[in-house]
Amino acid sequence: MVRERGRGDGTEDVEAALDGLYTTPPSGFVARREELAMAARTAGRAEDARRIHGARRPTLAAWAANLLLRSRPEESQRFLELGEALRRAHRDLDPAAVRELSDQRRRIVAALTRRTADLALDAGQRLSAAVLTEVTATLQAVLADPEAADRWATGRLDNALVPPSGFPAGAAPARAVRRGPPSPPRTDDLARRRRERLSRARAAADTAARERDERHAEHTAAEAVVRRAREHHGRARRQAEDAEEALRRARETLRSAAEEERQAEERSRAAGDALARAEREARRTARETERLEPAPGDGPE
């Protein structure tokens, strides 16, 4: 069944972040992943940041399959239930059920592939015929393989799925055993195996391209960080140079002020010495004047 988030154990934030991340178009995946990881680190959630940073960028087909699951949960749930019924019919060797459910499978897979293309286009991404082939293969794998169904139900595929050979797309219902020599391999079986090999080759190529794109995006982000660091270093260096120049001028001003203070103190001391001498001289001349002045009553004979 389609997985639901929000278990009340404190993981809602990171689970919701990862769910949203895997419906982000691949072209914006790395930037959004780093933004979410940085937000978690800033909030002190180191483990959440580690999980988010470890998320792998999905291929275009995987992203589209995730988008289908998230955008159409009820249809996706019915599709998962169809897969369970088909696998049960094959296990029970029920030809009538296999025939009926296989007819439904072909119609529903085709319809969901078209729906996925429409959803991707609404999100601004046109899917090529090759990508739609991988979407179809993913949906077929979901019907045939319970493990593939569980992976798709998380909504976090990072690569397209390949249908297993045990329950191939378009399998005919069980027939009565025929007597006689074995029939040669059918043309549709050979074509199916060729499609499977092609799908696996495309998946490997997509994985390599995705790794290349991620490394390129990380390199571009690292270069941007280096560029900003260099700009910051340049500004800091200029500020330091300005500060050193201001300090030099301040020291010159300080030395000039100190010299002015010294000269002023010397002038003050000289003026003080001159004042003291003048006061002594004034007192001396006053005493001399008093001594030479005639006493009261004294007059010429």
List the helices and strands and how they pair.
Blueprint: H1 12-21, H2 26-42, H3 46-53, H4 60-71, H5 73-91, H6 95-122, H7 129-144, H8 146-153, H9 187-292
> So what's the overall shape?
rod-shaped
The average pLDDT value, as a whole number, equals: 80
Helix content: over 70%
- How would you describe the oligomerization state of the chains in this entry? single chain
Number of helical regions: 9
Radius of gyration: 45 Å
β-sheet strand percentage = under 5%
Instruction: Say how many strands there are.
Output: 0
What's the end-to-end separation, in Å?
Answer: 149 Å
Structural class: mainly alpha
Major sheet size, sense and barrel closure: none
Low-confidence stretches: 6-10, 168-185
Order of helices and strands: HHHHHHHHH
